[in-house]
Design brief:
single chain; 20 helices; 9% strand; elongated; binds adenosine-5'-diphosphate
């Protein structure tokens, strides 16, 4: 996973990893220049060398350290900017991937969970940002270990003089073995402790993913001010607050558990470090007493050994942490690897000015991916070009699902849908969708300028936007907006305008009219409109859909009168079809019942 993450980082920015290495070389050199030159200066002072010589070395040390610090600082600054860019590129990749996912795949619970995890892996403090922190630390420790070994080597090289007794023993390379053994034991012990801590850390991370998701849900409620209304009306403040408090409690317990587990680790780490430091002083001190090394070298060797032990231990810790943080990257990868399942056709669509697109459902049955029960069963029908068709039927009869299949949000479980005799799966999806203007019941408007909502694009024809809004019955409201079609909807970046349900529905209708496609589909398009606005829409419906094929789903049975053909859906089947008069003549059947049930209220 670490390797994969490195490869991904390198593919996103080729300069990042080399710069991390350079930065760390500069950081470590800066320390060792001070240690080595400091020891040399101390030896010169003890040896009473000329002041000018000593000052020269001090000057070189100060200048070189200053240059290294400036270089290191410059590289670190560039790296911080790069890290932010990397994370922002990854965030962008998540959004881009979400946008290209099939609706059917996006809607799955597993996909939604993976999006959350991928997002978490980038956003949370311990996520990919932490991976980079550990990566740079790992490189620094590695360089530091190599440098320490180079600095330490002379300590174990015997002097050429013949010496005996304790001095002889200390002069032999094997005397260093005792120190090395203590060093190895301390490092191994730290490694084992670090591994255990990482496991605990991983458990905490897994627990926190769920808790963070819950917290994000409650926190987002604050921003969705539209939900604030229901929260207040139904006195749900306590429920929301309770959710936040319970969740915070769990996060806190999780943190306390982690701190408790960490305590012995911190104590043992200090004890081991202390033993190692003590042994180092004894060993190096004895060598000085036996005149095997100079006094100035004590500082250098003690610093090198402690630094090496610290770097070895910390390197193991970063390695463990990297493996765990690599998991975050794996969440990110898992999400980016989600593939679309829908067949992607390539056939181009013939662009026809006469809108002669013949659509047909051929024995289509369908169940939703997460369910077994068929929602549509053996539906067969043909659209007649230029026809105005209404679809009616009780709630849950499958009317919206029928439309979702037509625009390939889902593919049929059985049977096929044809356009001009060819299975719609075989067409290039984007081109295929160009022939539809659809307003779903749960249409969405966005906190963008009104014109962009209507045109569904940043570029638009202002006159056409205005025309579509007027056709959709939005003229009066538009006149009230100070910024006209440039007014921002809802509150996001800038202060926007709030619109009513009916106004929103008219804007959604205008969006469909702006698209000016061959087939217009309106799913409950007037449900939020006042009777006058509704009447206006019906009155202009003929003009709106002139020369186009239109499908109109509605619970207002009276709207069916505007249509040439009516399909009656019940329990996933087309149970009746014909003109209003034909269907009314079938007394006792569903259409007549639905009509009469509604007519009663208007008598
Ligand atoms: P209608 O538009 O006639 O009211 P729908 O086509 O919306 O009915 O729904 C038909 C059935 O399919 C309903 O029982 C509904 O619960 C179910 N359904 C709708 N959307 C989904 C979905 N995304 N996943 C699972 N079941 C769904």
């Amino acid at each position: 996973m670490i390797w994969k993450s490195l490869k991904m980082t390198h593919s996103l920015n080729k300069k990042y990893i080399p710069l991390v290495v350079l930065g760390k070389i500069l950081a470590v050199s800066q320390l060792y220049v001070s240690i080595i030159m400091g020891s040399m200066i101390l030896d010169m002072v003890i040896g009473r060398q000329a002041v000018s010589e000593i000052m020269r070395l001090v000057f070189i040390m100060v200048i070189s350290t200053a240059l290294l610090i400036v270089g290191w600082w410059g590289v670190e600054n560039v790296l911080r900017v790069m890290e932010r860019e990397l994370i922002s590129k990854m965030r962008q990749a998540i959004v881009e991937h979400c946008m290209t996912l099939d609706y059917e795949v996006l809607e799955k619970k597993e996909t939604l969970e993976m999006i959350q995890k991928a997002g978490d892996s980038i956003n949370s403090g311990g996520g990919i940002g932490n991976f980079y922190y550990n990566l740079t630390a790992f490189i620094e420790y590695f360089i530091s270990i190599i440098t320490s070994i180079v600095v330490l080597l002379p300590l174990f090289v015997p002097t050429s003089e013949k010496v005996s007794g304790l001095t002889g023993f200390l002069n032999g390379w094997y005397s260093g073995l005792i120190l090395m053994c203590i060093l190895i034991v301390s490092v191994v012990y730290r490694y084992l402790l670090a591994r255990r801590m990482s496991r605990i850390g991983q458990m905490q991370f897994e627990k926190n993913i769920d808790l963070n998701r819950k917290f994000a849900y409650f926190f987002n409620l604050i921003f969705r001010y539209q939900k604030g209304k229901d929260i207040r009306l139904y006195h749900m403040q306590d429920k929301v607050l309770n959710g936040v408090v319970e969740n915070a409690k769990e996060i806190e317990n999780n943190g306390q558990w982690m701190a408790k587990e960490e305590r012995p680790y911190i104590i043992w780490k200090s004890v081991i470090n202390y033993i190692l430091l003590l042994s180092t002083y004894v060993y190096v001190g004895l060598k000085v007493i036996c005149r095997l090394i100079s006094l100035g070298n004590v500082m250098k060797y003690v610093a090198a050994i402690t630094r090496m032990s610290d770097s070895l231990g910390s390197m193991m810790e970063s390695y463990n942490a990297l493996q765990i943080k690599g998991k975050y990257t794996s969440y990110y990868y898992d999400f980016l690897n989600i593939k679309n399942e829908k067949y992607e056709g390539t056939l181009p669509l013939e662009k026809r000015d006469d809108n002669e697109y013949l659509l047909e459902f051929k024995d289509v049955s369908f169940h939703y991916p997460n369910q077994k029960e068929m929602v549509l069963s053996h539906v067969s029908m043909k659209f007649t070009i230029g026809e105005k068709m209404a679809i009616v039927g009780p709630n849950g009869a499958g009317k919206s699902t029928f439309i979702k299949l037509l625009c390939r949000l889902y593919d049929p479980t059985e049977g096929e849908i044809l356009l001009n005799g060819i299975d719609i799966k075989l067409y290039d999806y984007e081109e295929y969708m160009k022939i539809f203007s659809i307003v779903f019941q749960d249409y969405q408007l966005f906190s963008f300028p009104l014109a962009e909502n209507v045109a569904a694009s940043i570029e638009y024809d202002s006159e056409k936007v205005k025309r579509s809004l007027i056709e959709a019955g939005f003229e009066k409201q538009l006149k009230k907006f100070k910024d006209g079609i440039y007014a921002n909807l809802y509150q996001m970046k800038e202060k926007g305008i709030e619109i009513s349900g009916g106004e929103a529905q008219k804007i959604a209708l205008a969006r469909a009219l702006y698209k000016d496609a061959a087939v217009v589909i309106l799913d409950e398009p007037t449900s939020a409109l006042d009777p006058v606005s509704e009447f206006e829409i019906y009155k202009h419906f003929d003009e709106m859909v002139q020369g186009k094929t239109s499908i109109y789903i509605s619970h207002r049975m009276s709207s069916c009168r505007f249509c040439n053909r009516i399909l009656v859906f019940d329990k996933g089947k087309i149970v009746q079809q014909g003109s209003h008069e034909q269907l009314m003549s079938q007394t006792g059947e569903l259409y007549a019942k639905l009509w009469e049930a509604q007519a009663k209220y208007y008598q």
